Amino acid sequence: MNTNHSKLVVENLCLGHRSRLNGKFTTACEDLSFDVQEGEFVAIVGPSGCGKTTFLSAVAGLMPVASGRLELDGHQLSGPGRDRSLVFQHASLFPWRNVFGNVSFPLQAQKRLDEKGKKRIQQLLELVGLGENGDTYPRELSGGMMQRVNLARALVTDPELLLLDEPFAALDAQTREVMQSELTRIWQADEVSAGKTAVFITHDVPEAVFLADRVIVFSRGPAHLIESVPVDLARPRTREMKRSPEFLAITDHILDLVMQQSDEMRSASHGHSATVVA
Amino acid sequence: MAIAQLSSPRSGTSVQGKTPAAQRGPRRYEHVLLGLLGLGAVFGGWQLFTSLGIVDPTFASSPIGLFGALVDYIRSGAIWAPLSSTLSTVAWGIGISLVVGIPLGLIIGRSRILHGLTEPLISIMYSVPYVVFLPIIIFWFGIDQQARIVIVIWSSIFPLLINVVAGSRNLDLSYLHVAQVYCASRFLTLRAVALPATSPYILAGVRQAVGRGLVGAIVAELFMGSAGMGYLVQKQTSNFQMDEAMAAIAVIAVVAITLTRAVAYFERRFTSWSTST
Questions:
Q1: Interface contact A80-B181, CB threshold 8 A
Q2: pTM value?
Q3: First to last CA, chain A
Q4: Can you list the domains of chain A with their CATH numbers?
């Protein structure tokens, strides 16, 4: 494995929760290995409940690593760090702070809320299309707008690695389409964060293919790597691209992989005899 | 159990927070006017009955007598000593309740074991009328101001605790995750995340604590006072000075309304974000 140019290295990673009640260890990821290159946008898909979100929590530092390597720029990750930002699944904005206040929180936490920081916040709000909404409170925002603030909050620290945890899962289909295009635009446009390394979790395969340079397919839980599928589609990507044969071929291939895992999961839960089908 | 006793912060703020907004303009004046009219009717009737001799003003006082006594109180300055005594009892009692109750409630709410240990105790102490502890508190602390402050704390801290514990338990974990991911210090997490997130509960608790604390102070003065507004009412009634007693009650009413309105104002001011528009 070419670890020299790798931003994020995952090797033989094992993650899990220990139950508070009986002390039993439930494995979420087992013997997971792959890496993410500098400037690469990687999407992770897999059957629901396979441990994608647990994996991302571990990278964000919200969860301890049980064993194996999980390295960013050659340093084993343990706990949260200023070099990573997480775009939360449910925007998790502070309702008592306005949009500007929410985006400024990471800078405040890291004692970087100076004039330059404030300018950067305004710049990012304009980038995500909320330049006029700095004084607005979250309760007045739509779901899509909340996720824009969520994204701006993550970008404001200028992180080395941007983590996105199914940020569009709760949005309606139309808003989701818009936000996907917006995310590619923002990811390419922001001159400070242009070409940032990003790891995006989703259960929506076309979304993953549309956004990513490479799609990583997780097995059913406990998760390990099934396949790493490169997406060689030109950028900037447009909505029309979703109907192109190349796009559909990649999507179909990944869908097959995911469905196979889902079927295995279903038959596994139905008893031993059914596993023969897989 | 605690849920049933909790005064819901959301409904609390929306009831008190939305009424003025809904009644802007002419409707608002109408509301004030009707209130004054209702008060005027009661006072007018009271005055009429005493003037006609249907009730004896020696027992029932009268609005004119009350007003005269009130003016005398203020002119002679006789009201200030008992008033400041009551106010300082309330201020000390509520102040200690807040300083102890808010952090204690936050800590109890974050710990499963502490909550389990204290929940029944707090519920019992909240439910039992605190007045029954009066003789015991007199036995322990005497009848000085110190004892009166203890009564105010006793009466106000349990509703406060119940609300703060509920707020602390309901603290959304995702807010804490945001603080963690962006490497906020413990202090910033407490000040800028945990405190505002629980502030609707805290302020609902403060509203209850202030109401009950004032009652506690007056009851304490009635029973064991040598000073304060409660003692004044008690003394004047014993001396058949009904005008003075009624005037003292009017002053207590003003204090009570001012305190309640002040807390309601803070609730609106600091938790407007929690009411949906």
A1: yes
A2: 0.77
A3: 30
A4: 6-83+159-277 (3.40.50.300)
